[in-house]
Amino acid sequence: MVDLSKITKGGKTLFLAYDQGMEHGPTDFDDENVDPNNILKIADEGNVNSVILQKGTAEKYYSDTYYVQKVPLILKLNGKTNLVDDPDPYSPQICTVSEAIELGASAVGYTIYVGSKHESEMFREFSKIEEEAHNKNIPVIGWMYIRGSGALHKDIGQLTAYAARLGLELGADIIKIKYPGDPRSLSWAVESAGRTKVVVSGGAKESEEEFLEMVQTCMKVGCIGMAVGRNIWQSDDPIGMTGKIKKIIWT
Q: Which of 34, 83, 89, 169 is a Cys-bridge partner for 29, taking CB atoms 3.0 to 4.6 Å apart?
């Protein structure tokens, strides 16, 4: 198994996600968080375990800066926009493992849309990424997101467990999943993932109380941590919010 110590601490982790701009456009941003420098500052001052970026952002704001030595990088290797109304999304690979390493990445990530008719193509790309990354002792994180015509009208809890199991079967070191809506379903997903570690996506901004309750649930059922973006950098106090999340994760 590859070494996860660069992006975890004591077997737990908090990722600061900032890869949303490709799929969401600038709609999530204001005058402050539209600037990647401000996000990297939050990552540094909040002492998160890693920051998630797309390659262009990493190339222009992360590489050859102070942050390379301070904040580990997870580089996202695929992406798409939300402009094409397709019930079966496909997110093509846009960056290689070698490029990621050159940019200073400690791990790489790739989204698979579970339920899309393009699953097989994403499986092929993921398997090649995994082989190359593991040959270089680089962890691979699978964004296992349920989306596609094959997932319509099916139970989200069962699908989340299926997605988690798929991450294990494909060989992901860590999977990133969305909260399925209740603790029991999440617990079954974590169990289904076996020795593959599970982090939960923070998702869209919500009330602080509701969000922190969800973090507590995730940790109680066996997740190793969270991948949080908007609920930190859209907060009125990003560093304070980061501290509250960390306190729950490492309690």
A: 34
